[in-house]
Amino acid sequence: MGLLPLITSTLLFSWTTLNAAVKITKVDLSIEPSADVERNTDVALRCKAEVLTSGTEALNRVYTVYKGDSVIYNKTTSSSEDLLYRLPQARVSNNGKYKCAITIMGKAKTSEAATLTVTGMSTPVLRINKANITEGESVTATCLAQGETGSLLFSFHDNSKEVENGVWVTSSRLTFVPKGVGNHNIHCSYLVLNMPYPSKSQQSNTVTLTVEELSIEPVLKISPQDNVYEGDTLNITCSVSNSTKGYQAGELFLSQDTELLKSGETSIHVNWTAHARTPVLTIRCQLDLGDVEKVVSKTVSVRELFSVPTLRVSAVEVFQEDEISLTCRSEKLSYGRLEGESLIYSLEPFDYQMVRKGNGVFVGKAKTIDFNYTCTAAAKGIKKKSNVLTIHPKVPVSTPKIWVSGSAILGKRVEIFCLSDTGTPPITYTLWKASKQNQIAVVHEFNKAANFTVVINETGRLNHYLCTASNGDRTPELSDKLQTAVIEPMTIASLMVVPDVGDISEGHSVILICSFLGTPPVTVKWFRDSDDLNPLDTTTTNSNNTNYEFVANKEHTDSYYCRAENRANSVKSNKINVVVGMAMWKKLLIPGTIILVVFSLVMVGFILFTRSRRDAASFYDDKEGRVTNGTRGSVASLPADISNRSSYSIPATV
C-alpha cells in the first residue's frame, strides 16, 4: 500500500472513531466456578460489558480489576469478548471483594462488587534446631506455612504460653531462651492478613524440647538466725555452690526486701544491723547467669527493742497561746536487751516555745496557727520516729453581742441574735432570761449569728435577756443585757372638740384633741369624712395626746376623726360631726334689718296715704266751686279771671 492510501485510511478511521456514539449500559463481574471454593481451586473472574455504539469499527476498551480499593490488573483491548482474570490454585490470601471497571472513549462504568471466599489453609510445620539444651541456652524454631501466599504473621508457643509476650512476628524463624528446666512443648500457628478480617491457621505439630538444669546454685548463710533483736548484727554470706566452668561468670545480688545490700561475682559477705520495721525480714541471694536467674531466700524474725513512740498532747482542745504539754513514749521496751540504757526522746522541730521538762515531756505555749510535731526515741544506735502530731489551735470566742431583728412588739414573736466576732466553730450560744437558761443553738460556720425566737409578754425593756458563747472547755463569754424597749401596740384613740359642737360658729377657733394609748413616738393624722385620703395635718409626738386647731367657717361643716400610729400598729378614733353656725353679728343683723325694712315700709305707706288724702281734698274743693244751684259745669260761678281762661292747672301739694 502506498503512503497516500495509508494516510487516507488512517484519517478515515480516526474520523469515524471520533464521530461514533458510545453508551455502556451494563458491566457485570462473575466468579467461576463459584464465589465459595476450596483451596487449590482454579478461579476466574469474568468481566462482561454491554456496549451500544453507532459505529462499525471496534473501539478500544480499557479494563481495570480491583480487589478492595486496590488495582490488581489492567488491560486495553479492542475485542468485545469478556475479560477473564484468572486466579490459579486459589489461596486464602485471594479472599476479598472484587470489582471490574471498563472505560471506552472517556466513558466509564463499574460493576457491583463480588466476594470470593476460599476455605482451607495448610497446616503449619514446626522445626527446632536443638532437642536438648541447658538452661540459659537459646533455641531456634521455624514455622513453615507450605504453599501459602500473601502477608503472613507467625506465633510461637512454649507449653501454654506465647513466646515474645504474645506478639505476632513477620518472620517464620524465632530464636528464644526457654524459661525453666524440664520438657517444653513447642508449637506454632500463622495468620494470613486479609481485609476485613485475617484468617488463622490450625496449630502445628508439637516438638518437645528438653532443658537441663545448671549444676550451680546460690548459697545463703545468716548468723545468728534465732532470737534476734533489732540492733543485733547479722553475718550474711551469699556465694555460689559450684564453680562456673564452661559458663560466663555470673553476678550475685544480696538484698533485703527491696533494699540491695551488696553485689559481687563469686561471694558476698556483709555485717548488717537488723531492724524491726517488719516483724519478719526476708533475705535474698540471687545468681544471674545470662538469662538464668537462681534465687535462694531465708527469713529472720526480729523482735523490737522498743516500740515506735507515740506523741500526745495533754489537752483535748488547744486554744491559741494556751499552755500545752507534749509527751513522747514508747509503750513496749525490752529491758533485758537495753541493759540499763535509757531511751532518749527528742522533739522535732524543737523551737523556743517548747521547753524540756523531763525525758519525753515538753511544755510551752500553743502557736496561733496550725503546727506539726514529731518525736524520736533512740537507744543502742536505733532511732524510731513517731507519727506526725498536728495541732489545730482554736481561736477563743470574743464577747458576744446581742440584738433583736426589727422591733420588739408586745404579744408578738421577735428574733434575738447573738454573735461573737471571733472564735473557731462550732460555737455554742445560750440565751438566758433572768438567770435561767432559755434556748441553746450551735453554729458551725464562721461569723454566723445564732438566732432565738421568743414571744414578748411583758412591757418595759428586754434587759432580762442576755447570751453566752463558748467553743470549748473554758468559761463561756457573757454578753451585755439586751437594751431593747418593748413597743406596746396602739389600743385606743379618742377624739374630742373644743368648744362643744353646739357652740361652734363662724370665726371661732376650733381645737380637735386626739388622745391615745401606745408606746411613743406616735404619729397622728387628722381627717375629715369627705376626704379620707388626704390628712388635714400630720404630727409626731411622744405624749399621749395632741391637737389640731383651725378657724371655722361654713365649709368646715363635716365629720372629723384622727388616726394614731406607732411602730406596732395604728388605730382610728371616733368620729365627731362639726356643724359651723352663723356668726353673732349676722344673727343680730337679721332682726334689725327686718325692723328697718318694716319701718321703711310703714313710712312709705304713711307718706302715700297722706298724699292721697291731700289730693282728694283739693279735688272736692274745686268741684264745689263749679256747681251752682245743683248744676255741674256752670261757668257763672267761677271767678272772672278764671272763667275767661281757656285752660287751668291745679298746683300739686306735697
TrEMBL record:
Matches recorded under InterPro entries: Ig-like_dom, Ig-like_dom_sf, Ig-like_fold, Ig_Fc_receptor, Ig_sub, IL-40-like_Ig
Keywords, comma-separated and alphabetical: Disulfide bond, Glycoprotein, Membrane, Signal, Transmembrane, Transmembrane helix
PROSITE patterns to which the protein is assigned, alphabetical: IG_LIKE
Gene Ontology CC: external side of plasma membrane
Transmembrane segments: 588-609
The keyword Disulfide bond belongs to this UniProt entry's keyword annotation: yes
GO annotation terms (biological process): cell surface receptor signaling pathway; immune response
Range of residues in the leader sequence: 1-21
MF annotations from Gene Ontology: transmembrane signaling receptor activity
Record-annotated Ig-like domain positions: 124-255, 393-479, 489-579
Protein name (record): Ig-like domain-containing protein
Organism of this sequence: Poecilia mexicana
Biological classification of the source: Eukaryota, Metazoa, Chordata, Craniata, Vertebrata
